[in-house]
Design brief:
Strand order of the largest sheet: 2-1-3-6-5-4
Helix content: 40-55%
Largest sheet: 6 strands, mixed
CATH superfamily: MoaB/Mog-like domain
Oligomer: single chain
Radius of gyration: 15 Å
CATH topology: Molybdenum Cofactor Biosythetic Enzyme, Chain A
């Protein structure tokens, strides 16, 4: 399974701060699911950069799953949800709803997340927060459902019938 990890951060893009979220996602997904997370990029908080990268990866079928980190809050330059919505063909609202619900138990600031998730072609795209602690907490909620979700998006016949094959 190939996973794309897209970090959205002006400071990391400019080399002013190391990318902490992307490598953390790769480590957790690799260790827990055994999936290849070699497709990575860091882009600035700019709609076109985010949209174009998501489209390129999904349209070329380079990743079954794309996890983004960063740009989901209220700051004026936080445009990851808007760029993701411009790319996805079908929204998957239950994923960000579950992530926010679990995060609200930890911090009331979770209600400030504008993260979205959805499907483009055969790729599931999920927005995660930029804070490494929040990334880890969100992945704890997300990881148990990812294998089945990706099977469904990829068109696995057994998954479509509700049978787990992973």
């Amino acid at each position: 399974m190939n996973v794309g990890i897209l970090t959205i951060s002006d400071r990391s893009f400019r080399g002013e701060r190391p990318d902490a979220g992307g490598p953390l996602i790769a480590q957790i997904v690799g260790d827990r699911l055994g999936w290849d997370c070699s497709l990575t990029a860091v882009v600035p908080d700019e709609f076109d950069h985010i949209r174009d990268t998501l489209m390129a990866w999904a349209d070329a079928d380079r990743a079954a799953l794309i996890l983004t980190t960063g740009g989901t809050g209220f700051a004026p330059r936080d445009v990851t949800p808007e760029a993701t919505r411009a790319v996805i063909e079908r929204e998957a609202p239950g994923i960000p709803e579950a992530l926010r619900a679990a995060s609200l138990i930890i911090t009331k600031h979770a209600m400030l997340s504008r993260a979205v998730a959805g499907i483009r072609k055969h790729t599931l795209i999920v927005n995660l927060p930029g804070n490494p602690k929040a990334v880890r907490e969100n992945l704890e909620v997300l990881l148990p459902v990812l294998p089945h979700a990706v099977e469904l998006v990829r068109g696995d016949a057994g998954a479509e019938q509700g049978h787990r094959t992973v």
